[in-house]
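Recap quiz, item 2
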Amino acid sequence: LTEAPRAIDKDRVDSTLEKIREKLEAGDIQDAIEILTRLHPADLADAFTELDEQEQSALLPRLDLQSAADLMEELQDQAAADFAESLPTDLLADLLDEMQPDEAADVLGDISRQRAAQALSEMEDLDEVLPLLGHEDETAGGRMTTSFVGLLPDSTAQQAIEFLRHRDPEAETPYYLYVIDHDGQLTGVLGLRELVIAPPNATISSIMDPQVFHVDVKADQEEAARIMARYDLAGLPVVDEAGKMVGVITYDDLFDVLEEEATEDIYRLANVPSAELSLDSPIHVAIRQRLPWLFLNTFTALFASWVISNFEPVLAQVAVLAVFQSVVAALGGNAATQSLAIMVRAIALGTVELQEVWRTLVKEALTGLLQGVTIGASVGLGVFLWKGNPVLGIILGVALIGNMLIAVIVGTLIPLVLRWLNQDPALASSVLVTAVTDSFGFALFLGLAALFLPYLR
Amino acid sequence: LTEAPRAIDKDRVDSTLEKIREKLEAGDIQDAIEILTRLHPADLADAFTELDEQEQSALLPRLDLQSAADLMEELQDQAAADFAESLPTDLLADLLDEMQPDEAADVLGDISRQRAAQALSEMEDLDEVLPLLGHEDETAGGRMTTSFVGLLPDSTAQQAIEFLRHRDPEAETPYYLYVIDHDGQLTGVLGLRELVIAPPNATISSIMDPQVFHVDVKADQEEAARIMARYDLAGLPVVDEAGKMVGVITYDDLFDVLEEEATEDIYRLANVPSAELSLDSPIHVAIRQRLPWLFLNTFTALFASWVISNFEPVLAQVAVLAVFQSVVAALGGNAATQSLAIMVRAIALGTVELQEVWRTLVKEALTGLLQGVTIGASVGLGVFLWKGNPVLGIILGVALIGNMLIAVIVGTLIPLVLRWLNQDPALASSVLVTAVTDSFGFALFLGLAALFLPYLR
């Protein structure tokens, strides 16, 4: 009866893949199907996408409906849409009926309107999917599923357990039961465990917790994520404007949201606007996303060039300035990037309050100043020893102190200002921040050099 | 009976804080306590940390043990350790007994050894905490709790429900029940829901799922996170070398791990080595973390300066080169950062396979080349129009193409090499990557200029 407990194993998927290919080559399609469907749906999807088109189309018609639905649920958005577009309409409708309603709605939103309309017209189970179609992807409504267990407050624990016995065992979120009155209003929550250990004739309203965290159907998925992470919730009910419960977001949705939001922040800080971009994106999509930021950087870099060009006569007289101007820019840029990362993360995790901005800013400024003095003194001394000119060393040191001070202030303030403007603080990417530190650094270093030109020649 | 459903509300914490302060000023400590303990533990901890020391010490002795334990569980690591150090030993021991064993173990690991030994000697409930003390923070053992529900395979559903009725209702992970044989071996898992709907005299072994995902107690927390996120698990059992179940990691731990790992990646890419750093860190801690990377950057920047210094004679003759050398460096740096972010994220989410490296590299190189040609041609043309020198424009354009090509290759390869060396790919921070793009960019641009010097003067 008992098998060895199962651990994750990439090799296992690979060796399974080999076995499937062997069976396919030998013409044993049924055996191949059996090996495939014994996998966890997540592994099944991985293995299936590794197969080539010919192998896929040999297997697909023989896959049972439930496995095919599992497969579609686990595929990446684009892969699922491509797969859906390739199927005959009646099979697609059957699959969508079999899938979790939130996953089915996602697929319907990603395929062509015409194809979605065809599939909807042939689907049987529209009640759960239709309400999900109108929501934006990144809202609570776009993340929720309509498949949840609702109980009436005046029923008994025994009745509730009977009700559970007769419900679809595939339904999601079996652990929190939501108490909904006759008007559809969310009025309480009950853990399955509390239900199990309650006296059989206790009413639901006497054992439920009347305080239920919830989120508005139109709220950003980040807000839902913050509530669930803060209060350690495995499920969060979603309500409409009238307080009617319309769905639930579950912990596994939150795993996805947390990963997506982290990708978005990392990408934006690195000048990549869309979190959808991956190594698998076609080149033209990658370029469409990445090139605009590089063009923006072209303008900021040419602006910095224009700053330098104002000092061309100075540079013509003291060429060694060209050697060190970039040190000032580079250290400013990296010091700003450090402040930026810490501030963006603090905002994302909700650990900074706008009232504390001044205290934070003063602290960062002090950090920047102390770092600037340390680095400025070291580099100044080193360059004096290298080039033998004390004034060059002093000017470089002072410019480093000034630019590293400005750097931390800019790195701290830009995300705060973006936040205050209700924009994503992570848009304060390295392009924008280094635009300031480069230009300011060049101006400060070359400006000081122009002032003390006689001592540099 | 029913109250309005509860949504997250920062303002609510703030207005509660005001009420508590009013009560304290009026001397109504009991009222203040009542307001405080009516909050969710997460809000309670937030409100409490906002109070000043005097207010805290007025409230603390009157807080009931459970609320104080809740408070300690919700405090940040450092705050919890400070709080623990400030308490009398007997009270600390009582609190630790009351806390979840994993949280208690974390506190014991964060306070001084002497203080921890004192507290342990006065604690009553050591069975659950002691096994947790030996594990590294970022391993599965360091994340798990020992508080889980284990069932014997030959007991019946009815017996299991009776057992649940008599267990501590505070125990974590009430939703998965783990089936453990007489030798302590993990042999199956059972959802609470499956237990509820099973016939009362069915044996546990007949209704359990014998395939259980699990993780080794010494595995990195990231591995546990990947399994839970991949297979949408609300709980993951942790086993020792002998296959004995020693604990469980729950979905709320995973929320924390996902946030921590994202912070770590964002920080490392931005040259901040420790994810522990926050806006609240003291300045000397911030500088100790951030300064070493800025010193590393000093060396890479001075190396780039040395590259430039080899072209001082050229720069002395054509000062305008100093104006544009930084454009080449800046665009290379930002193009590399884009590749870096996409690659680091792909590795973190496990969506890249080492076998696909070549395909990925060729695709990135093509992207870099196309972007380089677009930007190089635009900038080259622009600078020709600005400065009137076609050769300057061509040299700048060619250097941009070359550096942006190298940039994407470096941004893609460095994280892969780090991964291959079993290091964190996110250590390929902007400092390291721009070290390459700066030096190479300067050398390429100034080298080309030296070659075509007669056309530039």
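Residues 357-387 of chain A form the longest helix (31 residues).
DSSP finds 23 helices and six strands in chain A.
End of item.
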